[in-house]
Design a protein that fits this description.
The complex is a heterodimer. By secondary structure, chain A is α/β, with parallel strands linked by helices. Helices cover 37% and strands 18% of the residues of chain A. Chain A has 14 helices and 11 strands. By secondary structure, chain B is mostly beta strands. In chain B, the strands form 2 sheets. In chain B, strands 4-5-6-8-7 form a 5-stranded mixed barrel. In chain B, strand 5 (58-65) and strand 6 form a beta hairpin. The chains are: A alpha/beta, B mainly beta. Chain B: This is Nucleic acid-binding protein. Chain B: It holds the Pfam family OB_ChsH2_C. Chain B: Residues 31-87 form the ChsH2 C-terminal OB-fold domain.
Chain lengths: 377, 101
């Protein structure tokens, strides 16, 4: 259990913003979070970001935020953990408060990707693979990794591409009600099933998009309504060929186990979930690894509608990465934005009487995972 | 094909490590094994990063080696299915290129 509370939240619209710099997006989300928290004194800033250097030529994000907001000469840092950068930034802030060093920390996450070509973005994302490996040289990509997992999942279970499409459709339907989501155009099973293939069996709707956007949180030791009950982080294999069980993401499983243990709750107690659905297949594996459903039976739960906003285990009521959008460094923070709204009772796709919420943020091909469990007091 | 086999447990990998990540105590010993194996899973990549765009679409497969517990990620010459038997054809820029037997 931590003694850390979320006092304020902020988030930009996710999408394509050619006229806004990465700094502008960061500042916009941060100001909203500070105002939402009642403008407390901030002792430190942690910013989650992955490719600001490689495709934006912009670093020193922590100091930029402190200067633009006039926070004074406080310590700041950028945190990189591929797609888990945001979740790890949050965890660093929590650790700073738990250590006694800080009372109040501003957490932000940002990415600006839409100005670059798909080939250049795919190349930059591949920095989260092991350069010094035969696997990367073979031409494996991030979507490719989850394509290999999906084909094996289909081989070992009775799941088909339609089950992945059900996940993509569910998340799109949730995004339709989220005004900050990137995709707000309705779709159909037919359109998802017939979309062009990115990496077999995954089609366009099975893959999260490139996105511009930012999100921010103010966390503090001052007791408030939203309690961070636990924070956990794990690493996993950095190469697919080193997976002991290809259909397992050990970092997700272990970070989930630690988070439940620290919080003193189990998967059955969680009312609402934000999961790192970078691909539809990733959501399938994560709902199993986090213990919501049995291994290799997640597809049955999907088929039965149990993960929809009105199901018994609502997953990605924000629209998830697939439809809310995936500005890489912002994603882990944006998950918390949605869950805090759920616990405050003001969320798109509000789950009635939500009291315990869980967020899981993944980086690389299972290289990093964070899990945070929130509680409404 | 070089693999690294733990001297204390069953763990094996195509990449060496300081100590065995499975049992945490064993050391990995280099072994030469046959490149022959079975396709464990695969994907046909249509959208590729800039450095591989000229190859797309191409197939990446995970091969379960016959003579080791290790698996190896390879690019295949042509399409494959799970269960296909394949072996190393040649090595190109650090990538193992496999073909069906």
């Amino acid at each position: 259990m931590t003694n850390v509370y979320i006092e304020g939240i902020g988030m930009t619209k996710f999408g394509k913003f050619v006229d806004k710099s990465m700094k502008q997006l960061l500042v916009e989300a941060s100001i909203e979070a500070l105002e939402n928290a009642g403008n407390p004194k901030v002792d430190a800033v942690f910013v989650g970001n992955f490719m600001g250097g490689s495709i934006g030529n912009q670093e020193i994000l922590g100091a930029l935020v402190a200067n633009e907001l006039g926070l004074g000469y406080i310590p700041t840092a950028k945190v990189e953990g591929a797609c888990a950068s945001g979740g790890i930034a949050l965890r660093q802030g929590i650790m700073g408060i738990l250590s006694g060093e800080y009372d109040t920390v501003l957490i932000a996450g940002v990415e600006k990707m839409k100005h670059a070509s798909t080939a250049d973005v795919t190349q930059a994302i591949n920095a989260a693979m092991d350069n010094d490996s035969n696997e990367k040289q073979a031409g494996l990509t991030f979507p490719g990794f989850f394509g290999v997992l999906a084909n094996r999942y289909f081989y070992e279970t009775d799941a088909t591409k339609e089950h992945l499409a059900m996940i993509a459709l569910k998340n799109r339907e949730n995004a339709l009600h989220n005004p900050l989501a990137q995709f707000q155009k309705p779709t159909t099973m037919e359109e998802i099933m017939e979309a062009r293939i990115i990496t077999s069996p995954l089609g366009l709707f099975d893959c999260s998009p490139t996105t511009d956007g930012a999100a921010a949180l103010v966390i503090t030791r001052k007791k408030g309504a939203i309690h961070i009950r636990s924070s956990a982080q794990s690493s996993g294999p950095t190469q697919m060929q080193d997976a002991d069980d290809l259909l397992s993401l050990p970092a997700v499983r272990e970070s989930g186990r630690l988070a439940y243990e620290k919080a003193g709750v189990g998967p059955e107690d969680i009312d609402v979930v934000e999961i790192h659905d970078c691909f539809s297949m990733t959501e399938m594996l994560a709902i199993e690894e986090l213990g919501f459903f049995n291994k290799r039976e997640g597809w049955l739960a999907v088929e039965q509608g149990r993960t929809t906003a009105t199901g018994d285990k609502p997953v990605n009521t924000s629209g998830g990465l697939l439809s809310r959008g995936h500005p890489i460094g912002a994603t882990g923070v944006a998950q918390m934005y949605q869950l805090v709204q759920q616990l405050r009772g003001t969320a798109p796709n509000q789950v009635e009487h939500a009291r315990l919420a869980l967020a899981q943020n993944l980086g690389g091909t299972g290289s990093y995972s964070t899990v945070h469990i929130l509680e409404r007091l | 094909m070089k693999v690294y086999q733990c001297d204390q447990c069953e763990y094996a990998s195509v990449s060496n490590k300081y100590r065995c990540p499975s049992c945490g105590t064993g050391n990995l010993q280099e072994q030469d094994v046959s490149s022959k194996g079975t396709v464990y899973s695969y994907t046909d990549i249509h959208i590729a990063p800039a450095e591989f765009a000229h190859l797309a679409p191409y197939t990446v497969a995970l091969i379960q080696l016959d003579e080791s517990k290790a698996k190896v990620t390879v690019r295949t010459d042509g399409n494959v299915q799970i269960g296909d038997v394949a072996e190393l054809d040649y090595v190109e820029d650090g990538a193992y290129i496999y073909r069906k037997c």
